[in-house]
Amino acid sequence: MNLTRKKILVTGARGFLGICVVKKLVEIGAPSKNIRTYSSRELDLRVKENCEKAVLGVDVVIHLAAKVGGIGFNRARPGELYYDNAIMGIQLMEAARLAGVEKFVAVGTICAYPKFTPVPFREIDLWNGYPEETNAPYGLAKKMMLVQAQAYRQQYGFNAIYLLPVNLYGPGENINPESAHVLPDLIRKMRNAKKKNKSEVVLWGTGRATREFLYVDDAAEAIVKAVQKYDKGEPVNIGTGFEISIRDLAGEIKRLIGYQGTIVWDKTKPDGQPRRMLDTSKAEAEFDFKAMTSFKEGLRRTIEWHLEEVADYDR
């Protein structure tokens, strides 16, 4: 698909990933005047009429908008996470179909995978069990877009695709302690511990769980390539094929921050999913995507941004 003459709606365009996707679209030649963006205050997509307004006259929808957070946020607000994400996806895709949109790109989440998925996660394992409990309401709400996309393709010939990105990170990420994901939250805690000369910093869980992280610019590139080149109904993983334990991640952040104290693991808190790492071969085969930013380099850039641009959180 040549995007230079397409009118494109990017939901969540003011967010961490959305900003990078819009930038990437412009880089490949999509005129900024053809890229439609709204904040959640301008158009609340939980309202059906707003979804209909958003897609009017649009050729492509890239649906990134989501309510999302870390383990603590997931435990505190499971109802909101399920309803808000499910209703946005359902109503927006239906509005796009009725409006004659050419292509709908649904961006899901690795949280949709079963709790004990064999590593590396392959797309064919997506339905072989229930998601990890703390992430399940969010993961299942986003997973319903895959069901809807495949059903609409079968009945209406609607070109909807579904992508499964891993945890994203990079400059500009969410740093709110109430809803931040694990990596920025670890950086915040280490920074504050160093600033206040604390002898120890307490982290959730055992540290044994593993995670895979994808630099946000790479994620944006993957999404834009999928818009251009992928038109099939099967879901596609978006990641790096690299995993690191939370314990090792914390140690690396501690080193880069220069914190000299002790890390204490609060084993009364949940680890979340035991392991996460994707098989990314389908993305490379289908639309020539391979992550280019090494985790070492991406983490360095991210911590530099935190140190230079972000005011300290004292919580």
UniProtKB/TrEMBL annotation:
A GO molecular-function annotation: GDP-L-fucose synthase activity
Positions with a binding annotation for substrate: K189, W204, R211, D271
Pathway(s) the chain acts in: Nucleotide-sugar biosynthesis; GDP-L-fucose biosynthesis via de novo pathway; GDP-L-fucose from GDP-alpha-D-mannose: step 2/2
InterPro entries named among the record's database cross-references: Epimerase_deHydtase, GDP_fucose/colitose_synth, NAD(P)-bd_dom_sf
UniProt keyword terms in alphabetical order: Isomerase, Multifunctional enzyme, NADP, Oxidoreductase
Listed GO biological process terms: 'de novo' GDP-L-fucose biosynthetic process
Enzyme class: oxidoreductase
Residues the record marks as active site: Y138
Catalysed reaction equations from the record: GDP-beta-L-fucose + NADP(+) = GDP-4-dehydro-alpha-D-rhamnose + NADPH + H(+)
Site residues (Important for catalytic activity), renumbered to this chain: T109, C111
Domain NAD-dependent epimerase/dehydratase, first and last residues per copy: 8-239
EC number: 1.1.1.271
SUPFAM superfamilies reported for this sequence: NAD(P)-binding Rossmann-fold domains
Residues given in the record as NADP(+) binding sites: G12, A13, R14, G15, F16, L17, G18, K142, P165, V166, N167, L168, H181
Function: Catalyzes the two-step NADP-dependent conversion of GDP-4-dehydro-6-deoxy-D-mannose to GDP-fucose, involving an epimerase and a reductase reaction.
Family that this chain belongs to: Belongs to the NAD(P)-dependent epimerase/dehydratase family. Fucose synthase subfamily.
Full protein name: GDP-L-fucose synthase
Species classification: Bacteria, Candidatus Woeseibacteriota
Chain's gene name: fcl
